[in-house]
Amino acid sequence: MKRNERLSAKDRRLLKETLKELNRQGRLQEEKLAKQHGSTSVYQHSINVAYLSLWLAGRLPLRTDRGALVRGALLHDYFLYDWHKKDDGHRWHGFRHGKTAARNAKRDYRLNRLEEYIIARHMFPLTVLPPKSKEGWMVCLADKWCAAEETVRPFFRIFRKRGNPHK
Ligand SMILES: [Fe+2]
Ligand SMILES: [Fe+2]
């Protein structure tokens, strides 16, 4: 089963439509130019986080604002620079980029408060202030999970190749 097929048809459509809308309105495409973890771009990482956030929301017995959840997840790393490049402006990236992403997203999109806080506080517990909403907690959790998966996945690929001499 493909990963995306684990979402309901409604959630799949929401993810697709929101991504299309954000791509049309702002600079989301620029996230394709910078890597986030391993070989995963910031753009793909954001889609992964949105997917997992929706998956989580579908399994928890909580009412969630799915629209804000997906927009917040897709824009949570909208900092628009390559943090691997040495630059004074990228210092303390881990601590600062939530706020930078929220500021950029507010400039390029019409955000509500819920979406703004999802983005600004997704780096908890590295940053002191925790998420303010259940949607914020979902994105925060999904982000950690995706970051770990994207970081270790390339190593598993190497092991798999080494284990099979015909690959
Ligand atoms: Fe982040
Ligand atoms: Fe992230």
Automatic annotation (TrEMBL):
Claim: Phosphoprotein is one of the keywords in the record: no
The keyword Hydrolase is assigned to this record: yes
Molecular functions per Gene Ontology: hydrolase activity
Keywords recorded for this protein, A-Z: Hydrolase
Pfam families attached to this UniProt entry: HD
Start and end residues of each HD/PDEase domain: 38-157
Record-given protein name: Phosphohydrolase
